[in-house]
Each structure stands twice: as structure tokens, then as C-alpha cells.
Amino acid sequence: MDKLLSILPPQQGGYLPYLLLYSGLAAAIHTVVCYASRPTTALKAFSGAEAPPPHPLLAHVYGVKNFYTSMIRFYAAYNLANPLMYDLAILTFVGVLFLYITEVFVYKTSRLREAIFPYVTAGTGFVWMMLQRDWYLSQ
């Protein structure tokens, strides 16, 4: 148990590092899914009326986006006092919100029920990080 606790980021008086680890891990797992499974599985979130047919190239591009998102969040979880890492982590949540808002409401390649989880996760991460920015950067 001590070994597990030793690899977790310091709590620093808050739980934001754990949210970043959780969301980074989810993105990393989805990267593996995008490369290791069929495109229909990897691109399940994009099954709206105007969605293109699932293609391995599209799944791989989405996997790359998830990979760099996960790496930024992992690094930020351990370096929250670094303003550059903090801002990059915020931008990953902005990027997810932008992606799903445009895919649901503009391009119609995703449906709202498939975008709810990204909206909640990215929205929570964005709001939490914006509200706590000054506190974490003063550490």
C-alpha cells in the first residue's frame, strides 16, 4: 500500500491532482482502445446523424489526441504549481468541451447522450481548475 501511495502526487491540500490523474488515465485507456480495437468501438461517441463511417485512420487520430491530453494531465497532476503546466491542463479541458460542443451542435456527428460524460468531466475539470488557479499556483 505504501508503494501505491508513493507514486500518487502530493495532495497539496486539495484533490485536483487526483482529478487530473483520473482524467489522464481515462484518456490513456481510450488511446489504447483507439489503436487496439475496431474503429466502431473506438469511435462510439461519434455516431450522430452526420457521422462519417468509422475508419482506422480516424480512430488513430483520435487516439493521438487522447495520448497528448493524458500526458499533459499526468504531468500537471505532479506540477500544479507550475503556471505553464496548469494552463496547459486547463486547455485540455477546453479542447474537449470545444470538440464535443461542435460535434453535437454544429457538425451533428455525435449525439448529446454520448457527449454527456465528456461534458461533465471536462466541465468539472475546467471550472475546478479556474476556481482554484490562484491557490494552486501560490503553493
Question: What's the structural blueprint in terms of helices and strands?
Answer:
Layout: H1 2-7, H2 16-36, H3 39-42, H4 56-78, H5 83-105, H6 112-137
Task: Explain what this protein looks like in three dimensions.
With 139 residues, this protein is mainly alpha-helical. The model has no long low-confidence stretch (mean pLDDT 95). Helix 5 (83-105) runs antiparallel to helix 6 (112-137). The protein has helices at 2-7, 16-36, 39-42, 56-78, 83-105, 112-137.
Radius of gyration: 16 Å
First and last CA, distance: 27 Å
Number of helices: 6
Helix content: over 70%
Largest β sheet strand count, sense and barrel closure: none
Question: What is the residue-averaged pLDDT?
Answer: 95
Element order, helices and strands? HHHHHH
Low-confidence stretches: none
Tell how many strands the DSSP assignment holds: 0
Taken as a percent bin, the fraction of beta residues is under 5%
- Name the structural class: mainly alpha
Bulk shape = globular
Q: Main attributes?
A:
139 residues, 6 helices, 74% helix
Write a brief caption for the model.
This protein has helices at 2-7, 16-36, 39-42, 56-78, 83-105, 112-137. By secondary structure, the protein is mostly helical.
